[in-house]
Design brief:
Blueprint lengths: L12 E6 L3 E5 L6 E4 L2 H13 L4 E5 L5 H10 L3 E5 L13 H13 L11 H33 L14 H11 L5 H5 L4 H14 L6 H35 L24 H8 L13 H11 L9 H8 L5 E4 L2 E4 L7 H14 L6 H12 L1 H22 L8 H22 L8
Parallel strand pairs: 1-4, 4-5
Antiparallel strand pairs: 1-2, 2-3, 6-7
Length: about 425
Amino acid sequence: MSISGLPIIRSNAAGIDIGTEKMHVSVDGETVKVFSTYTESLAELVKYLQSSKITSVAMEATGVLWLPLHDMIESVGIEIYLVNGLHAKNIGDHKTDFRDSRWLQKIHSCGLLRASFVPKDAIRELRTYMRQRENHVDSSSTCIQRMQRAFELMNIKLHNVISDIKGVSGIKIIEAILSGERDAKKLSNLCDTRIKSKKQLEVISSLIGNYKSEYIFLLEQSYEEYKFFQKQILDCDKRIEILLSEITRQLPAPPESNPNPARHNQPKIQNLHSQLVQLNGGKNAVILPGFCDKTILKLVSELGTDLSRWPTYKHFVSYLGLSPRMNQSGKSKKRGKWKIKTLAGQIFRESALSIANSKHLALKGFYNRLKSKHGHKVAIKATARKLAVLYYLFLTKGLEYVEIGLKQYEESYKKNLIRILNKKASNLGMKLVSA
């Protein structure tokens, strides 16, 4: 486990192996002191680091177990290197917690570890609220599926005439059914005027069903769950609103710009768009294709506002897990099996899906070309990478992105393709003739 011949870069470095019950700490690469994971014991661990005059600590990112200790060490001003376990696993002996802590101390003191990205405390708080909100949104979607199942059991085909049963018309009908109303015509009158004028008879037919008590019970339970999660989402929005107000209080006022709210599950936060522009240094990122205010809020909660943490856009897309990974040994090249999955990368993938479903965005042409050659999954990942590059360049260099439109993009691509074909034909002593 000794590292001979390498200079010591950090003389006051420590290594900590994190576990569910015990923390193993090595401050010199030889001795190991064990602490329990209770709060009082963690406080003793921090005092032990201070008494040993430790200025930098390395520990592996193990689930969420590192967070309590990270916050306590951070509060006393000690530098923390949160590292990927794969970067520190090559121990030339039987792996134990004691050896792990010694090995972390040795390679960290020699400067062989790279710190993982950990946002500032305010961003971590925002991340907690946003992730909890997304959990509630997912749970709410599950409740909607259960309500739809209850309708199917009752043979109520409301979804055939109303695209969204959680809309105003759908909720009114659900509440009326739970209140005891069974007359299809009266239920249809609760629909929006536009729906009634176009599909009155079809709506009435869709609401004639088998209202058995057990199916009504399923609908009631699912609807109560749905209302509960909607309240939880609003509570998260209130917390986010308060936090954003605190973060942006000292920032300069943003320039005027038009918001771009999400079509679904838009956070109910006052001045959300202007606060996001403030956080991003006056840059309105929703002008990028595939982005809305909710998307930018999610990205800020995951990545923070300072993207200079990544030296280039290549580092950025690699962190997101959107760059292609190759395993090469000599002349042999193979696709790597290990794939990076990050929540921030997933946000860009979701934005790429909106590009795939669009009709007039220029990147739709890029997506279509890749899809025809390599399939949907590769095209989505490549489009997400292109969006990530645009986002990085926009926020770090102020690169203005102007949507040139699908038609102009395709014309430019066609001109380049004709130029290449003419060059190839010329090399073969031939000439292209238009049909």
